[in-house]
Every structure is written in structure tokens, then in C-alpha cells.
Queue: 3 jobs
Job 1
Amino acid sequence: MRMYDIILKKRNGEELSTEEINYFIENYTKGDVPDYQVSALLMSIFFNKMTSKETSDLTMAMVNSGDTLDLSQIKGIKVDKHSTGGVGDTTTLILAPMVAALGIPVVKMSGRGLGHTGGTIDKLESFKGFSVNLSKQQFINNVNSIKIAVVAQTADLAPADKKLYALRDVTATVDNISLIASSVMSKKIAAGADSIVLDVKVGEGAFMKTSESAHELAKEMVRIGEAVGRKTIAVISDMDQPLGLAIGNALEVEEAINTLKGNGPKDLLELCITLGSNMVILSGKTTNLDEAKTMLMNTIVSGKALDKLKEFVNAQGGDISCIDDTTRLPKANYIIPVVASKTGYVTKIHAEQIGLIAMELGAGRTTKEDVIDLAVGIVLNKKRGDKVEVGDVLAFIHANDRDKGKKAVEDLVKSYIISDLMENNIPLIYDIVY
Ligand code: URA
Ligand code: CA
């Protein structure tokens, strides 16, 4: 078999065989196929698309490119949750303790990732001393005893995806449904959970810009999961404006703590309850969605979810004093208000621009080696649909560098679209795909 022939076949719009896909992934992982040939193949896939069979084959080839986790030592049905990526997405930090507080084992492997803010793993490091590198046995023991562990994804899990994703990132081939579906599902399948709830984001701040393409991606991922015996549900949710109010690492941790204390932003709580209730359904605790929602809300009201967060952070070595007293979290030197220069209604908040502003303040990474500033970011004060008057505070910039803070203020004003007419017909939850 030759890589040249595989590229030619895909370029001509034909379907690749299982053997051809395995050949490409095995040899690329080993370093025997150069990036330039894979780049050409990726671009052919981008233009000619992949069939469902090719997408499944690619997923399984990437699963088999490295280790797969055997979690059979963990009692019960293990659930995992994954988001396709958005701006200010704090859901895992809230959901995981809520679901675990119901006695359902939550096993979560998270990435650091490049992007506007760090990944869940980076955010958790806002708790001083928190360790994201548990041994496999510690990971299993923690889930068995307290029902929750969140660790960094190891390098041996779906290594083919790691290489491919990095290459897609620099060859403009990220936003293809088959490539995203196989990338996400290969990691989820290798990470060993029995059931998976996916949060597929749609809107300006997401890979999928339209509801149609988000549906297509959701259906493809659910199909792949079910085909390999993992119960999979995908929630399609809005990413046309940032989720919640906080965008940044420690700022999102504080927002998560406040939500678990019953003082969270409405949209963030609603999405957490929607995703969480589907995790509860998949765990088999109940078959009634309304009952699942009530059970989850009760974990907040009773304080059990907040207690679970403390237990979880403590078990992984983190300082829990900042959960009771959030002023102990990392704080920025400057907090600068951004004020409205126009009266009207907020009709749009450009999610992608907000993400970039947070990144320029230091909340995210542009290269793997960048060090994140946990303290900086943005806290929105007005969201889509809100009425504003001249002089009202739209948002607060949290900066450690005065010049970066000033620049962020200028950019943030431009991210808010204020109009005379109120229009807010974008739903938070578009659909749920089973
Ligand atoms: N998240 C992933 O893990 N992979 C993609 O391709 C896109 C989002
Ligand atoms: Ca948020």
C-alpha cells in the first residue's frame, strides 16, 4: 500500500477502505508518513467529505493508535461529558460535583488545550496544590470512594488524534464534521466511560456556525458512540454569546463555586441541568427527565454538590479554603469597568472576539509552551436581551498589565452590539439528539 494512492483515491472522491485508513493512521502515528502527505489527504477529506463508514473506521483507527483505559474496576455505570468547545464554558466544574453527589461515578479526562482560556485542567489548577496527574490506581480508587476524579489526558491516549489535530490546526482543516466527530469520539472511547453526554456548541464562538451543521455533527457522534456500545446523547447548545458571565480561569472557577452555592447565572445553570439530567438518565438512576432535573437541583439546595466539590478538590491535593472564601482565588491587579456609550438593547455579544480578548489578557495559550495567567479575564455585566443606558457597565476587565487592560476595554466595547429594538430569539438549548 502507498500513501500516494490513498491521497489520489480520496482526491478523486472515492471511499477509502478500512485497510487504507488503518494503514494511514498506523504509519502516521509511527512517524513513517510525512506531514505534507497527511496535509494533502486532510484537504481532500475536507473537500470530498467522508462517508459514515470511513468516519467510524477513522475513529477506531485512532482509538487503536494508543492505550485504552480499562475502568472495569470502577463499580457502576461510568458517565463522561464532553463539550466541542466554546467561550467561557464552565459546565464541567459545576456538573461533575452535582452528578457525583447523586452517587453516580463521574470519570473525566480533560485537556489543557489551546484556546481562549485554559481547559478544565488548567482551571482546576486555580486551587493551589491541585494535582491533575493521578496514577491509574489513584484515579480508580478516588472514583470508587468519592465518585469523582478529573485528570489530564495522558499522551498515550489516542496519540494519532493528537498529531492529526495539531496538523489540522495549521492547515485550515479543523472544521470538518467527520474529522471533529472522529477526533472527539476516539478520545472518549479510549478513555473508557460506559456512557457519554456531548455538548455540541453552535454559533459564532463555535466550530459549527449553523444549527444544521451542529445537528449533523451531533448525529454522527451519537452514531459512532452507539456503534461501539457506548450510550451517547448530544445536547446542541448556543455559543453565539459566551456562556455565563465569567471568561477566564480563576474567574470561571469562582463562577462555578457561586453556581453550586445557588447564585449562578441563569443560562449556565440551565445548561448544566440539561446536560446533567441526561447524565443521570444514562446512569440508569431514573428514566424520567423531570425527576432527574429535580434530583440535580436538590444537590444545590441541600449543599451536597458544594460539599462534593470540596471533597473532590481535597482528594486531589487542592486548597479548599477558597471554596468558602473565593477572595482567596488568584486575583488580577486591575479591575476595569467597560461602559456603554449608547442606550438600547444588547442584541449581540461577539463570542469569538470576547474569547480573543481574554486570550490577549493572558487567560489562554497560543502555543503549547505558553504559561496561563489564572487571574485575568472578563466578567460580563450585560448579556443578550438586556437593556442598557449610556454609562451602564457592560463588563469588567480583569488584567495584570495596565496596557493590556486598556486595549481590552477598547476591544470589548466593539464586541457589544446595542440596538434600538429588542430581539432575542436565539434559544439556549437547540435540541437533544439520542
Ligand atoms: N475538539 C476535539 O477534540 N477535536 C476536534 O476536532 C474539535 C474539537
Ligand atoms: Ca462562563
Note: The longest strand covers residues 195-202.
Job 2
Amino acid sequence: MTENIQNKNQNEQKLKSLIDRLEHTRSLTREEWAFLIRERTPGAAGYLFERARESRIRHYGHAIYIRGLIEFTNYCKNDCYYCGIRRSNPNARRYRLSKEDILSCCKEGYELGFRTFVLQGGEDAYFTDERLAEIVSEIRAGWPDCAITLSVGERSRESYQKLFDAGADRYLLRHETYDPEHYARLHPPKLSARHRQACLWDLKEIGYQTGTGFMVGSPYQTPENLADDMLFLAELDPQMVGIGPFIPHHETPFSQYPAGTAELTLYMLGLIRLLLPKVLLPATTALGTISPDGREQGILAGANVVMPNLSPAGVREKYLLYDNKLCTGDEAAESLNSLKERMKAIGYRITACRGDSLNIRS
Ligand code: 5AD
């Protein structure tokens, strides 16, 4: 054997033993995380996915939870350098759904079998606490057996509390990247990693099932940044984690940066499954956008959630965070049957239950 092949084998052995240790102790150092990510090989990834699938099946069987995503406003006061609905994109065609529109999305979604509604939007000042709380309480009253998830960015603790009291159960707020310096390269000075993270701790303390996450392959991201993201996940212990590849949008400052890869995104999904075995982990739209079988691959890497789009057809192509975003075909809630078939083909089944975290108040 040449020295080269020997080194390669040693490297792979080390990766596999770190993966085993991650599974058994759920604790690695920053250096170990960075090594696992930087030195990854296809062989180690295959092994990781096997371990991750087994862990997911142990806790959740072959069930896949569905969430109906309602993108209810694309107005946003923020100016994140990566995002297509940033304030300074003058070409984004802005829209906001009325309360009646949102309630009819829920009605349609319920009939299709959804038991979780995710209200996602930009940071739109029109949706004051009063307006949003009214929408939440009407959904709560109309569909008492459903979970309500909010994903509307950074708000005050009082605001989060009011929305929780109105009936919201869950909240998604990606931390985007843990490292303050990397965060500052992706966001304008007004936004900070520290404030983002403070919001997440508030949400958790209030009692929301909380979701966080990050983009994979965002500009300037290093393996050490991803290592910090994993350490942050270990500390926060969220009930949900959403990750997806960065995909450039042509009308943003990052239009010329390369997209993140499906390969690294899948690898990170596997690592997250082993770190947080009970986490609710979606195979996201962004993953489906960069790879035609991204969703299936995501499930096979350890994901257990999909979030089809319930927004009215007329606004879907306006909620463009990145270029070529999927919003028809199997991304659309109406195509649930074809999504079911695709999941069945890889041995998994979509379930209509609420799919609460097994990790509430852990
Ligand atoms: N590529 C991939 N994901 C993006 N998001 C925003 N812009 C992009 C992009 N260009 C993600 C962010 C945000 C979530 C709603 O969408 O992580 O939290």
C-alpha cells in the first residue's frame, strides 16, 4: 500500500470513530467538529448516514411529519446581504396576505391533512403584536387540534410572550451563523449574532418549542464556523433545526457567490441527527432546489420533516429568498399525493399527526 492510501484509511478510521463518539456521548470539542467537517470523505458520509438513519428510526420510526408553510408577507425591514426579500431590493414584488387569506390557507391545509401551520414572513411592521395575535387566536379557535408555528424574525420578549399567550406553540428563528464576525459579514451592522441568540433564549424560556438553524455554504463560512454552529445547537438544545444550502439571489450583494452544496448540507443533517437524536429536522426547500432528489436524500441522511407550501398560488413566486426557489410541483401542498409517493418509494410514510417534539422541556 502506498503511503497515500494508508493516510487516507487512517483519516477515514478517525472520522468513523468520531462519528461513533458523537453518537454515544453527543459531545465533541470544537477541533473535533471542525475535523469531522473539513476532512469528511464519501466513506465517512455513508457511515454517518447509516448511523443517523438508525437513530432517527429508533425515535421516530419511518414517520415523516408535514408542516403547511404559509408565507404571509414578503415585506421586510431588514437588509440581510443574502436574502432576496431584503429591504433594498426594489424589484421584489411585495405582498401581504390578509387575515382572511391566511385563515383560508389553514382551512385548505386542514382538509389536505396538515396539522401544523407555519406562518412565515419578513419582519413586516404592519404585523403588530395586536394584528398577529388576533390571527393566531383565530387559528387557535378554528383548528384547536393544530400546532401553530411562527417564523417572523426578531421581536421583543413581550411580543413573543403575547403571541404565545394567543396560542402559538412553536417558533422558528435560524441563528444563521453563531460566530459574531461571520454574522457581521452576512448582515448589516444593525443586526447582531448576540441579539439573535438572545431572542432564541427568550423563546425557549417562554415555553415555545423552538427551532433554529443556519445556511450551509454561506459566503466566508469555514469549517470552524460550522463547528461553532454545532456547539451552539448542543447548548441551546432546540426542538427543531432547519438548515439548507445558501443559494445566491441575483438582486443581492451576494449574487456572485457560489451556492452551498447538497453534499455538505446532507452531511450536516446527519451530524445534527446524531447530536440531537429527537430533533425535528426538515429536508428543506433550499435542499430540494439545488438537487432534484434533495428531499429524499435529506430524509435518508436523518431528516424527518417536510414543509410543503400552502401559500396562495398567486403569491408563491413572490416569496423569493433565492433564485429558482421551488414553489410548484411537489413543493406545493396540493401535490401531497406525489410527495407521499416519493417518500413511500424510499421506505417512509407521511403522517397527519401534529408531530410535537419528543424533547419538550427536556
Ligand atoms: N439562500 C438560502 N437560504 C436563504 N435564506 C434566506 N436567504 C437565503 C438564500 N439566499 C434562509 C435564511 C432564513 C430562512 C427563512 O431562509 O436562513 O432564516
Note: The longest strand covers residues 209-216.
Job 3
Amino acid sequence: MATKKKTKKSKLQLVKGMKDILPDEQKYWDLIRDKVDNFAHNYGFSRIDTPIVESTNLFKRSVGEDTDIVSKEMFSFETPGKDKVSLRPEGTAGVVRSYIEHGMLNMPQPVKLFYMGPNFRYDKPQAGRYRQFWQFGFESIGDDDPVIDAQLIIISYQILRELGLDIEIQINSIGDAECRPQYIKAIKQYYQTNKNDLCSECSKRLLKNPLRLLDCKVKGCNELAESAPQMVDYLDDDCKNHFMSVLEYLDELDVKYNLNHRIVRGLDYYSKTAWEIIETDESGKLHALGGGGRYDELVHTLGGRPTPAVGFAIGIERVIIKMQEKKVEVSKRKGYDIFIAQLGIEARKKALKLFEDLRGAGFNVVESMSKKGLKDQLDIANKKGTLFTLILGQKEIADETILLRDMDSGVQEVVNFNKIASELVKRLKKIEEKNLKAGK
Ligand code: AMP
């Protein structure tokens, strides 16, 4: 007799480095989205959404072939049509491609854009580091005035402050194509003479991306970086004046900042101002929540006419981790106004229709049709924070009425079924006026 072969099904799990955003966490995302939208609106930035998939060459030419991001961390593949594409590892390159492709060079400058979306880096996952992570970012393209750098720094700083985080800006200037080569020469020389103290990664970086040596946190490299030559000593007049002006603007405003000669940002496209937004935890450990900088060459490098630009990006998951650690109070998204409760099959039918009618008329309404008992339904209404519950039972159907329960006081009144919408409008308006008076 043939025996049935048991096939063991492997358990399906999240792909390594990925993360679900569960309903409990959504209130943080809602708050951040609202905050970003508000800032964008106030500072005159328009939303842009570029595709997650871009040509691999875009990142090679912008972020740079020798950076860790491009050389090791990209999710790259060939499409069936043999195009070499990658999941974007960061947001700026796509925005600049779009700026050039859609002729935004011909619009009034600067063009101010913001975005929010997922990025992908095949890095080693750990706390606060994922292979898919979200960023929001602001970019101002088409103006080289240092006031724009200062404004973007302020936006990046204030958004996080208003989200309840105590952060500081660490800032540096990495010069430009004119003065940076002399500095890189000096850095190479310095590290060459201390080659034996470098970690294996930095020994390779010394040849390909020497600025990144300043970024390394491995003990020996960290100590070396502290006494390495500093870019500020190599800035030419243009870069020095630009940097001084940015700092003067920051001094005018209430921004906590510190000069840090080790902020280099690591991507090829940066020039002049570079900054990171740092949070220090209770044990004194520093955490980067975001960073930004000028990228005056990038539009030109990607095929546009020379156009200065500056921008920043902030990692949303890390911001949320910090908000949770700091127990930042995040109220749930605005509660629902009206819950519809029903008792019995006939009532449920009528309630379904009423729900659709009220929702269609713009009421903020919620239900739980699968529940049968009134107590269960009122519990849900309470949990959802509704202001009123409408109750439909056999008697109400026969009388063509509905019960209107004020969830605060518990008082119930019988209302003519056909007048319920106008009754709700009246009562919601009263509550709104009361809240306005109380400054809520
Ligand atoms: P970067 O442009 O690489 O400095 O990234 C800006 C910000 O994005 C960082 O400060 C982090 O908050 C966030 N970020 C970068 N890489 C990751 C990652 N692998 N996982 C989670 N967040 C990240």
C-alpha cells in the first residue's frame, strides 16, 4: 500500500532586514506624516514621488561607485528586458533625475521638493538598521545662497524637536571640487603614515574613498580620526565664506549645533555644508537620525546644466524608536464621531444602509456589524473614542426612530430616523464650538 508522503511546509517569515509596520505603530507614522506635511506647506515645498526602481547607473553616477552603498549594499537586478536596475538606496538621486528630466530647470528657482518613501540597502541588520527603511527628505534645487542651507538645517532640526526629540546638529564643510583635492591629499598622507593602525575596511577605503576614514568608529581608526587634518583648514575663500554665513544664520536662530570635522556624509555628491542630526542616549551613545548637505555638482553630473542644491533626509524608523524610548506622547489619530450599533437581523440591514449613507454624507462613522450584543458594541464605541452611538433595535425599526446616545454623559434620546443626519450635524457643531472656545 502506498504511504502518503508528508511534506513539511517551511514557515513563512519576514525576509531578513524587513519590518512590518503594525497597527499599534501607525499613530507615530501618522504624526510624522502630518508634521512633515505641515513644515512642507509652511516653507513652500511641494511633494514629489519618484519610483523605487531606478537605473543602476543613476546611483553609480550620483552616490558614487566606490561608496559602500553602491559597491556593496544595493538591491540590483536585471529586468526581463535586460535593463540593469536597482531599488533606490536613497532619495536625492531620483529627485534630481526627475528635476532634470521634467525640465524643472526652467521653473522659477529654487525648486523646493519633499518626499517620503522606502529605501533599500543590503546592510547588516541590527537594532534600528533595516534593509528596507523609510526616509522623508527635503531638497531645494537652484540656489547657492547659504541662507537656504540654514533654512534646511532649521527644518530638519525643528521637525525632530516638534516630534519630542532632544537633538543637536553636527556640522562641517567638506569644501568643493576646487579645494577638496588638497585636503584629500593631506588626509591620504596622514593615514598612509599611520597605515598599520587602520582596520581592514579602512585600509581599502584609503585608496578609494579616503574621506570615509573620518567616519569609522573602530577604536584605532576612531583615535586616528580625532587628530587627522581638518577640512576647515583647507577651505578656499568661497567655501569658507559660505560656511561662516551658514553658521551666522544658525547663530541667529535657536539651533543647537556643534562643529564636527568628522562629518563627511560619505556620498560622492556632497560639497560645502554637511550636517547630521544626532541624538545622544542616556549612556552617552550617539545616534544619527538623519543628515544632509549641499550638492552643487549633482545636477550637472547627471546631465543638467550646473545648478546648486541642498537637501537632507531623515530615517523614520529611527525617529520612531527614539520617540518610543523617550515615551513621547502620541495621541491616536482623531477619534471617530459616530458608532452605529444594531440589535437583530432587520436592524443590521437598516444599520448597514445607514452606515453607508452617513459615511457618504461625510460623517466620521464606524461600526462593528459582526457583534450582536449591545454591551460588546458599546465597548467598541468607547474604545474608538466615539462621541455618539446610534442604536437600532426591533422597537426603533417599528417606530421609525433611532436611539442617540451621548457617549460622554450616557444619556440616550429617541430621534426620528429621518432626522438623524441633521440632528448629528447640530450636535457635532455644538461640540466643535465648545472645543474652539476651550482652545482645544
Ligand atoms: P544617510 O543618508 O545614510 O546618512 O541616512 C540618513 C538617515 O537614514 C540615517 O541617519 C538613518 O536615520 C536612516 N537610515 C540610513 N540607513 C538606514 C538603515 N539601514 N535602516 C534604518 N534607517 C536607516
Note: The first helix runs from residue 26 to 43.
